[in-house]
Design the sequence.
């Protein structure tokens, strides 16, 4: 059902975003990738993904902390494909530090990437979605959009904000055949999480496997990481006809994290 649909996924050259892009590519959608990888790596990703789909796969290098760059990316995408039919806001980074020593520049960039960028992509995508009478917006939030953890003030604030933004957009588009939902993953073994495991192992003087176990047992009762491909399947479901009346929701895939 996604043939001739265009899907833009921010932060999609690795991790969750790439898995979601590959999921939609397998359904022959047009894919707009976004990320900050070196051009050689981007070309490899484009070539690999293009061989698996009948859709068109392109890359936009917009800095998601720059509202002007986002505007250029969105306008160029809509001019090329007519609309962005499915918008997946995934870009974000993490920094761990107590509030009193949290670097101001890290706070600013995390809020820009994790919250403001979603506002900017959505505001540019909506007019064409309204004109077509169809659209799906999926914001990748986090379990940290529903509960907090120490030393993650910026990330938790950004992800809580994303869920609030999701609800407002859902209300404003409720009669337009446009849905807006948030997916809230728990621990997913992405480069972002692997970095936290590496830092924990080094700081505590333990092995990587011990650090991984420590990370899971603290938060995720299932003691297993969420798979990126499962999140991709979730995004595909939310973009399909069966989910047409699901909007404004923040749905977890977290191994029981927020049930504690």
Sequence:
């Amino acid at each position: 059902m996604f043939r001739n649909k265009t899907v833009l996924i921010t932060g999609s050259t690795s991790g969750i975003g790439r898995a979601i892009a590959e999921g939609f590519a397998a359904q022959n959608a047009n894919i707009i990738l976004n990320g900050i990888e070196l051009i050689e790596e981007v070309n490899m990703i484009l070539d690999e993904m293009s061989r698996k789909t009948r859709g068109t796969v392109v890359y936009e290098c917009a800095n998601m902390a720059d509202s002007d760059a986002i505007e250029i990316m969105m306008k160029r995408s809509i001019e090329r494909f007519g609309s962005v039919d499915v918008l997946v806001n995934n870009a974000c980074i993490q920094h761990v530090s107590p509030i009193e020593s949290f670097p101001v520049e890290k706070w600013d960039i995390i809020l820009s990437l994790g919250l403001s960028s979603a506002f900017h992509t959505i505001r540019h995508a909506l007019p064409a979605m309204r004109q077509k009478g169809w659209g799906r917006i999926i914001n990748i939030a986090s379990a940290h959009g529903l509960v907090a953890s120490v030393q993650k003030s910026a990330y938790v604030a950004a992800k809580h904000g994303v869920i609030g933004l999701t609800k407002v957009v859902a209300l404003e588009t409720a009669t337009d055949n446009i849905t807006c939902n948030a997916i809230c993953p728990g621990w997913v073994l992405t480069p972002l999480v692997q970095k936290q495991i590496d830092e924990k192992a080094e700081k505590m003087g333990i092995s990587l496997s011990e650090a991984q176990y420590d990370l899971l047992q603290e938060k995720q009762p299932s003691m297993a990481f969420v798979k990126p491909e499962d999140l991709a399947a979730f995004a595909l479901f939310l973009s399909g006809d069966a989910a047409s009346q699901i909007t404004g929701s923040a749905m977890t895939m977290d191994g029981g994290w927020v049930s504690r």
User: Anything to note?
Assistant: The chain has a mean pLDDT of 96. The beta strands are 6-9, 30-34, 57-60, 86-89, 135-140, 178-185, 250-253.
